[in-house]
UniProtKB/TrEMBL annotation:
PANTHER family named among the record's database cross-references: GLUCONATE OPERON TRANSCRIPTIONAL REPRESSOR, TRANSCRIPTIONAL REGULATOR, GNTR FAMILY
One Pfam family this sequence matches: FCD
Native source species: Amycolatopsis azurea DSM 43854
Keyword vocabulary terms for this entry: DNA-binding, Transcription, Transcription regulation
This protein's name: GntR family transcriptional regulator
Residue stretches making up the HTH gntR-type domain: 12-79
Matches recorded under SUPFAM superfamilies: GntR ligand-binding domain-like (SSF48008), Winged helix' DNA-binding domain (SSF46785)
Keyword check for DNA-binding: yes
GO molecular function terms attached to this record: DNA-binding transcription factor activity; sequence-specific DNA binding
InterPro entries in the record: AsnC-type_HTH_dom, GntR_C, TF_FadR/GntR_C, Tscrpt_reg_HTH_GntR, WH-like_DNA-bd_sf, WH_DNA-bd_sf
Organism domain of life: Bacteria
Keyword Thylakoid: no
């Protein structure tokens, strides 16, 4: 056995188990920004006392993933609103343009894949899971802009999506009703591709789709 194998096989403490369990759910969006971390519930889920859970949360707090407020308790750290807004505004522009560039030569099988993903998104609405919906939504968009022939534009779009992933936010977690609207808007975009609509029309539809999500988020933050 190598040294690396020995290190990897070292049993994790209960605190480490709790840390990785909570962090994984923050990373995949199950515990979205603002989600309250109830020590007793987490301890029961993991079959441990609240002590290792508390230690794990303190570690996550030191990493900036969790905040603790008096009379509220521990919760997943909120996103930086201005960073999210700027990222979404930029992505609206570059993704709309990427989709418009991709449209004229989009292979039929790619469009079929996008339709299939939107069908899965629709099916998710009955038993809504924000993290799964968010992942499928990301796949849907990547299929449509992924064939953009301009590599520099495509790079900007991918950077925008990666930045959103780094912000660990999904409007669908805060405002589930947005998911229903999003699926309907996806269908309108697919219809535009189906009928070979002008590039400008496709660009505008994708841009407005992205900006509507941003507006929904801002309305939730500032009711």
């Amino acid at each position: 056995m190598t040294t690396g194998d020995a290190v990897n096989s070292t049993p994790k403490s209960k605190s480490q188990i709790a840390y990785h369990w909570i962090k994984a759910r923050i990373d995949d969006g199950t515990f979205s920004p603002g989600y309250r971390l109830v020590f007793g519930q987490i301890a029961q889920e993991l079959g441990v006392s609240t002590v290792p859970v508390r230690e794990a949360v303190r570690r996550l707090e030191a990493e900036g993933l969790v905040t603790y407020e008096h009379n509220i308790g521990a919760q997943v750290a909120m996103v930086d609103e201005s960073d999210y807004q700027h990222t979404m505004q930029t992505l609206a522009l570059v993704e709309g343009y990427a989709a418009a560039l991709a449209a004229p030569s989009l292979p039929g099988e790619v469009l079929d894949e996008a339709k299939g993903l939107n069908a899965e998104l629709t099916a998710c609405l009955d038993n809504f899971e924000p993290s799964r919906f968010t992942a499928l939504n990301r796949d849907f968009h990547r299929v449509l802009f992924g064939t953009c022939p301009n590599p520099q534009v495509l790079d900007l779009v991918n950077r925008g999506w990666n930045r959103l992933a780094g912000l660990r936010t999904s409007t669908f977690s805060f405002v589930p009703g947005r998911a229903h609207e999003s699926v309907q808007e996806h269908q309108k975009i697919l219809d535009l591709f189906d009928r070979n609509a002008p590039a400008g029309e496709i660009e505008l539809a994708v841009r407005e789709h992205r900006l509507t999500t941003l507006e929904t988020f801002l309305a939730w933050r500032h009711p």
